[in-house]
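Recall the central idea of this unit: under ordinary conditions, the amino acid sequence of a chain determines the structure it adopts. In this exercise we apply that idea directly, starting from the sequence alone.
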Amino acid sequence: MDQALSVAAPAAPRRRELSAGVLLGPASVLILVTLAAPLVLLFRYSLDRFDPTLMIIPAITGANYAAFITNPFYLGILRLTIEVAASTTFFCLLFGAPIAYRLARTQSRAKSAMVLALILPLFMGATSRTVGWMILFTHGGILSLAVSALGGSAAFDMMYTPAAVVIGIVSFNLPYMVLMLQAVFERIDPALEDAAASLGAAPARSFRRVIWPLSLPGLSIAAILCFILSMNAYATPLLLGGPRFHMMATQVYTEFADNNNWPFSAATAFILMMTTIFLAVLANRMIPERYRAP
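Accordingly, the structure predicted from this sequence is:
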């Protein structure tokens, strides 16, 4: 009987593994078809050559990547994209962390209403919200009239400036940042803050020595996700930055739709993707080992 039990025991885990494999199989196939296959095709296009007359010429060459890396114009676009994404992530953390902490610690009955007010802008598309910022920033708009009424320059105009692009992307990413950080702060036991206060720690020191280390893994994930969204922003830089404000996503579209240079557009898209992944991994590695999520 003991031998029968020993034979039956490994069978149960195998059945569970088989069931899990059956459940995960369709999703895995769907991901391969809808994500991996287009990426492979896109990478293949990036190795082709382009001719203005013959269009795409099948080849295996790294000339498109070399043309991007050796051209100061495209390197400037990549640098600007990283700067805008880093600035957006910083301001989302700066404004989002206090809001998220307040939401996580509040016991008010209005908490549900606060969360609803936070996610309400997500019901509208990025383009619709960006058009609202355009009305606010444009010459003769609400902001321009307000500055003029306060004695400022009547020609005040924030449209087509990096500041307008950063503000627009921050407004899009901030709700996501707050929701992610709220979940992080809610997992931290408030009794730890009470214990720190009972030992004489001021609120600022309690946050620095207790809350900050415990929230750092989740905070870093939220910052990385915000950075990725900012790196790949398209509608906001196009509408608020104007035709002379080039970020990587808008440049990919320009090379693809306006110049019909599919190979170089594919190479630009891959450089954007690999740069985003590299910076995200680098940011995660910069977190001290003892603070990383298990």
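The chain is about 75% helix and 0% strand.
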